[in-house]
Design goal:
5-stranded mixed beta sheet; 3 domains; 15 strands; 5-stranded antiparallel beta sheet; Rossmann fold; GMP Synthetase, Chain A, domain 3; alpha+beta; 294 residues; Luciferase, domain 3; single chain
Length: 294
């Protein structure tokens, strides 16, 4: 006879509450989004809690930067061989790929290989499967795919295609048997005919020692259609200007991916109840009434 105790928090994510629960309940596994992990590691009381009970940890929700993975393994050394990342969505019962252990060390930008019984295809805008290494729309198939949206036949027909392939709405590439996630299709920035995925730029900026968190968005431009804007939140007691960050990006990114607009701030990014950044607020397309507060 076996069993497991599952510990749940309620309300908005609070790193101190989570660390307290891990210590009190002797939690052995913690599931998180990149935002949650990032905030926990940078919390001023991080060293005040005993988190040694943790044996493994991992999550998804968006891409984990190599810098964040490295920081987590350094701060929580017991997770060095058990830390894992994955890719999935509610429509596929949460998880479709997994990358952990030595595989994650070798391929830190991949979200992993398909789980058993899961198939992955990358298709172009016409629905044709593309070659290995070419970016396109991610499609999934397997017994974990939902039957459909409850009482929403039109939405179901748009998502579940012939052969019960799920159109995820995400962009990525399949290379060497591993999935690499680029972005959500609606996050794509179209600059003068170039397709730009914010995740690549965000990961570069997250590696800068002065940056606590960052979000990259596209803003309207009369000449190019859209240009890249980066909203960067600085760490406490750190200072950096747009010129330095521009140089930092230009050393690793193509010129058209380097942000043309910068917003450098101390205030946290606007987030919804699950901790995801509400990009529409940063592009002034909407107001946010449910914000992250200290």
């Amino acid at each position: 006879v076996g069993g497991v105790k599952s510990v749940w928090t309620v309300g908005r994510f609070d790193p101190a509450v989570v660390m307290s629960l891990i210590e009190k309940e002797q939690v052995t596994h913690w599931s998180f989004t990149p935002t949650m992990l990032h905030r926990l590691l940078l919390h001023p009381e991080f060293g005040s809690y005993n988190l040694s009970s943790l044996r493994s940890g991992g999550g998804g929700g968006s891409t984990f930067s190599p810098a964040l993975i490295s920081s987590a393994k350094e701060s929580l050394p017991q997770l060095r061989t058990t830390f894992g990342v994955g890719y999935g969505l509610t429509e596929c019962t949460a998880l479709a790929t997994l990358n952990s252990g030595a595989e994650l060390d070798l391929f830190p930008t991949a979200v992993g290989r398909p789980l058993p019984t899961v198939e992955i295809e990358i298709r172009d805008e016409s629905g044709v499967v593309v070659a290995d290494g070419v970016e396109g729309d991610i499609h999934l198939r397997g017994p974990n795919i939902m039957l459909g949206y409850w009482n929403k036949p039109d939405e179901t027909a748009a998502a579940i295609l012939e052969g019960r392939w799920l159109r995820t709405g995400d962009v990525g590439r399949f290379e060497g048997g591993r999935l690499y996630l680029a972005s959500r299709r609606h996050d794509l920035i179209l600059r003068g005919g170039e397709n730009i995925y914010p995740a690549e730029i965000e990961q570069r900026l997250e590696a800068h020692p002065a940056i606590m968190e960052v979000c990259v968005v596209g803003v309207a431009d009369n000449e190019l259609g859209q240009i890249v804007k980066a909203v960067c939140v600085l760490k406490d007691d750190e200072n950096v200007d747009a010129a330095e960050l521009t140089l930092w990006c230009s050393e690793a990114l193509a010129y058209f991916k380097v942000p043309a607009q910068w917003e450098i701030r101390r205030e946290p990014l606007p987030r919804n109840a699950t901790g995801k950044v509400v990009k529409a607020v940063l592009t002034e397309q909407t107001d946010l009434h449910f914000i992250e507060e200290d």
